[in-house]
Amino acid sequence: MKRLLVLLPLLLGANEDFISHYEYGEMLYNNPRGVSCSQCHGKDGAGTTIVEFRDIHGKQAIKGSDIRKDSLQAMIKSVSNYHEIMPRYYLTDEEVKAIYDYLQKKNENYLETSKENNSSK
Prior knowledge:
Blueprint: H1 2-12, H2 21-30, H3 38-41, E1 49-55, E2 58-63, H4 72-80, H5 93-106, H6 108-119
Helix pairs in contact: 2-5, 4-5
């Protein structure tokens, strides 16, 4: 009986997730299928320079886009389609939603400030 009482708290907590929805989104964003979203879109989704080079037109740069303001539907569509540079990840809609929610939470202050600035114009 004593052993059962010791195990009872563990059994009661068995229904809880191992990681939170936020942590799951962070994990997927940082390494969804071997190529990190953050390598091109930056640690917070603001975009970053992937590579700089010179050609006949001078200095050029390939940059990852700012995805902080993208809608969930835009992200699902983008991840599901082929692009010249971005690999196709084959993420489920639920996985993209976790990434979307992670970016929304991570960028709360930026998005709120941006919303306020747009409404004051």
